[in-house]
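ok here's MFS family arabinose efflux permease, seq below lol
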Amino acid sequence: MTTTEEAAAQVSDQQTSPSSHWLAVTAVALGTFLLVTAEQLPIGLLTAVGSALSVSEGTAGLMVTVPSLVAAVAAPLVPMLVGGMNRRLLLLGLMGLMMLANVASALAPSFAILVASRVLVGVAIGGFWAVASGLAVRLVAPANVSRATAIIFGGVGAANVFGVPLGTLLGEFSGWRIAFATLSALACVALLALLALLPPLAASQPVRLRLLAEQLGNPGVRVGILATFLIVTGHFSAYTFVSPALQELSGIDERLVGPLLFGFGLAGMVGNFVAGAALARNPHRTVLAITVSLAAAMPLYLVLGRGPVGGAVLLIAWGLAFGGVSVSLQTWMIKTAPQAVEAASALWVAVFNLSIGLGALTGGVIVDSLTLQTVLWLGGACALAAALAVWTARTNKNLR
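and the structure came out like this:
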């Protein structure tokens, strides 16, 4: 990026007051909340949708798989295709796309059209997240970047704790079409909030294929990408089957699984903001502490989680640790690629989404062919490998 480009971007970013910037951060957090809710909402609606559109629950699961895979592709592709488009306009367009996609879902006369609408949701998720995840550095002062990033990613935790359960309840009482329609209405609210609060954000550096490839030559970015792949794959290989683990390994009654998963989500929100505060002091130590905690929590479940109390305590500890993953690894990418935040973030979002699908798929194969306990060992082993990778970056001055 040339000096002229940097100056133009800085002038554009500074046209509004700091208070407006913080309001913009909140609006972006609302966007991430709705996008993650949209991505995961069908999990609680599979039976209803399958019955209404005459498909099996397994086939209905494509409503979750398809947008995740599309988001992984869209994360680097959308910034590349839009070139130098003002990022404010891009975010508005993507939120508008999400609003229309959920209208299409609510009105879908067939499962094929419903899946097609979910493709559009995936485009919105990947593109929005790739841009929004690195916006804190442009919306607030450098000293507040970690806190602002934690707020933006707080929308992810809030979606898991509130968005998906409430959407599922709405679907159960009013019908799955009403759930999608309500999500579209909320997306309209988010669109208006972004329109009113987000300042103009000139593209500081258009994302090109060459720029994306160059990020893999950055040692810090490579470690961040590898750690993301290992942590997210390991986590979802185990967490996908946390319900049977709670019941079969800890002897917890099925009726208590829902409240415990709610507790997991709340712990994750706490972990997100705790990590955000710690990142301001030392990003490397924060990420290392999270990976080590995850490496311990999942295997320890097999030793100390053999009863209801131990299982519940370790589940909350697991949620607390994983809650800090997104904000910590995104901050890692910002710190290690300060001149190419959007490009590095796009790669990170792509790997994150791919790892979700790969983790769930791997966990399913292992549970079917081996044992439930094996996925917990795998999750711990992946986190330990991530910790070792993170340790190698201890001399990186940008992470201290």
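fwiw The chain has two domains: 3-197, 210-399. kinda neat tbh
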